[in-house]
Design brief:
The protein is an alpha+beta fold and about 280 residues long. The chain is about 70% helix and about 10% strand. A 4-stranded antiparallel sheet has the order 2-3-1-4. Helix 8 (about 195-230) packs antiparallel against helix 9. The longest helix has about 45 residues, at about 140-180.
Length: about 280
């Protein structure tokens, strides 16, 4: 029972850490994908004549950092919004009018999209008649990356507190195991058993508890990642891509198992050192 409690606490600790780590992995993946597809969106004034839209498009196309252009009509913008946020379809229907403006998406060449060049391009397009607003997805890239770093930091903080608790719990469990086998230890000493010989089983016990706890947490994390999208379905709309989980890499999973083994070993070592001094 004591060992089961230790494994449970270790599992919970690493599961919390793994959840935030997986969320961070997904956010970093989304940021990397957005960073490879740099887009400046030029929102146009409503009822802008087609001839003026062409002038805006031609001006944007002359920029050396622009690779291609795409015109998004107001109808297409509404269809995109409805696809991303299906739960808000009734709200749009009640408006009776399309609230979305037409826009021009300027896809940039990544190798030429230096900050100063992009800033000059955006400033030039803002000053263009017919352009109401400009949005650059690089800002979203930085925000998503910041969210990823925040998720990892929160996971490390919460997981760290529980991991510290796991250390003390394992230490106390091994301490109780040492006390319960006090007579056996005395017999081993009488027949010439060294402290190192007596300590090894307890150190191995703590290490195994740490490894088991971390392995179970990885299995539970895998199950959670499989169940989470099914449970939410499409209720989050476009946010589902951000609030998703990407399973740990092999090195991250191996690191968690190694950390579990280290915590179990150190907790055991701390305990047996107090009772089995040389």
């Amino acid at each position: 029972m004591r060992n089961l409690f230790s494994v449970t606490i270790i599992c919970l600790s690493f599961l919390i850490l793994g959840v935030f780590w997986s969320l961070s992995n997904n956010l970093q993946h989304v940021a990397a994908r957005l960073g490879q597809n740099l887009v400046v969106t030029l929102f146009l004034n409503k009822d802008l004549p087609g001839k003026d839209i062409g002038l805006v498009r031609d001006k944007a196309g002359r920029s050396p950092i622009v690779e291609s252009l795409r015109i998004v009509t107001a109808e297409e913008a509404m269809e995109r919004f409805q696809a991303s946020f299906p739960d808000l379809k009734d709200v749009l229907d009640n408006l009776k009018v399309n609230p979305f403006p037409a826009s021009i998406e300027a896809f940039l060449q990544a190798e030429k999209a230096r900050p100063e060049a992009v800033a000059a391009f955006i400033q030039s397009m803002i000053e263009t008649p017919g352009v109401e607003d400009v949005e650059y997805n690089r800002d979203w890239v930085e925000k998503v990356r910041s969210l990823g770093r925040l998720a990892r930091a929160v996971g490390l903080f919460l997981g760290g507190i529980l991991i510290l608790a796991s250390f003390f719990i394992i230490s106390n469990v091994i301490k109780l195991n040492v006390l319960s086998r006090k007579n056996e230890i005395e017999i081993l000493r009488l027949v010439g058993g060294t402290n190192a010989f007596i300590r090894i089983p307890f150190l191995l016990e703590g290490t195994v508890l740490g490894i088991l706890g971390s392995l179970v947490s990885l299995l539970l994390l895998l199950a959670l990642i499989k169940i989470f999208p099914v449970y939410l379905g499409s209720s989050l709309g476009a946010l589902q891509e951000l609030l998703n989980f990407r399973y740990l890499s092999f090195s991250q999973g191996l690191g968690l198992v190694a950390a579990g083994a280290a915590i179990g070993w150190m907790g055991s070592l701390t305990s047996v050192s107090k009772f089995l001094k040389a």
